[in-house]
Amino acid sequence: MSETATQIPHVDYLVLGDSPHLVANECTSCASRYFDRRNACAKCFGSDFTKAEVPTAGEVTAFTIVAFAAPGVPTPFVAAVVDCDGTQVRGNIINCEPDADHVSLGMQVELATYSLGTDSAGTEAIGFGFQPM
Amino acid sequence: MASDDIYILGINMTKFGKHPDKDSIDLGAEAAMAALADGGVTMADMGILAAGNLLGSPGFGQSLQKQIGQTGIPVYNVANACATGATALRTVVMAIKAGECDMGLAVGVEKLSGAGLLGGSGKKKSDDDTWTPDGRFGAVASTDGRIGTQNMPGVFAQVGMEYGHKYGGTSFELFARISEKNHNHSTLNPLAAYSKSMPLEQIMGDMMIAYPNTRPMCSANCDGGAAAVLVSGEKLKSLSDEQQRRAVKIRASVLTSDPWQDGCQILPDVNTLTRMAANQAYETASVGPEDLDLVELHDCFATAELVHYDNLMLCDEGGAVDFFESGKPFRDGERPVNVSGGLQSKGHPISATGIANVWEVCHHLRNEAGDRQIEGARIGLAHVIGLGSACGVHILESSAA
Q1: Interchain contact, B140 vs A91, CB within 8 Å
Q2: What is the pLDDT confidence band of residue B282, given thresholds at 50, 70 and 90?
Q3: Is B371 in contact with B188 (CB distance < 8 Å)?
Q4: Top-level class of domain B6-114+220-398
Q5: Domain boundaries, chain B
Q6: A-chain residues within 8 Å CB-CB of B129?
Q7: Which residue, B260, B254, B222, B232, is CA-closest to B346?
Q8: Residue of A nearest to B259 (CA)
Q9: Cα–Cα distance between B210 and B149 in angstroms, integer?
Q10: What is the pLDDT of residues B23-55, one digit of tens each?
Q11: Closest chain B residue to A64 measured between Cα atoms?
């Protein structure tokens, strides 16, 4: 417990702990899922949301290997869309060589976390990506 | 001609490329004055000005007026990402349609040479040295590059890859061959920023930006302007035979935004709004894709061109790869696509693009395209996408008998 108390997720929809996973804002009337802070549902305009746990395994439905990015963004990296049992998730493919021989469409992946570093107060930021299964 | 039709009376695009000695106003003035001269009219005839320039100072339209004519008409400064030019055109169309005026000017300009990558930013959130959640994702650090990519080459690369995952048949080489086609087309376009053909090996061997898009498969950042003068059918009747002969009829002018689709806030969905716009345009114009003599579509990246064959229904659903392989989108094919060279070689000065693609189509419909003329062209379509998203589709028809 003392360890997780000094950790903070990269984004608020990443839940840390023993089994890290993503949590979506799910519209209570049409079940559309979002990862950002919501004002209302873009599909049905409802404004009531509940938290929904997103499966941690999925399939790569689109990817690119970014070789040239904005200053301050380390390259190369693999950006992808992962279909986690019906919920589309954006994330990098990690723990995998970033080339077209190692990444492919339809690849099965699972959520993995890594450290972004520790701040001056001793808090470690934890990010997520997807690694090959 | 019917009174309630709307026509393009005059239109112009500047040479696209590097214009270090000209500012945005110079390029806008050059295009606007040439479009007015092309239409045989002056600023005194204009009832509205719609102007787009994303990267310059605010109030571009008024700054332009101060150089080419201050007549007190309403100015609409418009912004819709890469669809800004089409939005300016559409604004003038709506004003004429509403009966507010019978003639108007649309202008789009960008100074983009050397702009580098667009979209996303590696800017650190002000790292006061503790992790502090911020923004709609409660992020403690920048997400670009850590949770996917926000840069344009990477986003559109995924758009093409997604199509490949859905329907199969795509490869790095296929996307590069689409680029090869457009670079070949550009050799006949003296106004293109780059007008050299490029062998496939060179395209594939060039610097990788975001797999599978190498540098020549990305739209070229450059400077340029484009402008169009629009007129009502009723007003056109009072103009000369020559003006009437060269006028190009706007059979459809459509602008859409992206409707909600599953996953559309994860990877932008550039497909649904394009298909919607195309459907509306075909219906309004009472034409089908098979009637089009040429198409200028938004090939901001080679991966984007492929999906828009399908979105504009130039092929059956899922058939974009076969459509390309059949040779139809080549300039000697059945449905020539991007005979201007497209954004990969002609260049993509953002706000000018949505008028410059209409200029290209008009050029052919007026039989004035010289060496790259598509013989007998009577109907053409111009398409543009601004990520975010906005989609403009214009269907144009020659007036000449």
Answers
A1: no
A2: very high
A3: yes
A4: alpha beta
A5: 6-114+220-398
A6: 119-120
A7: B222
A8: A43
A9: 10
A10: 999 999 999 999 999 999 999 999 999 999 999
A11: B211
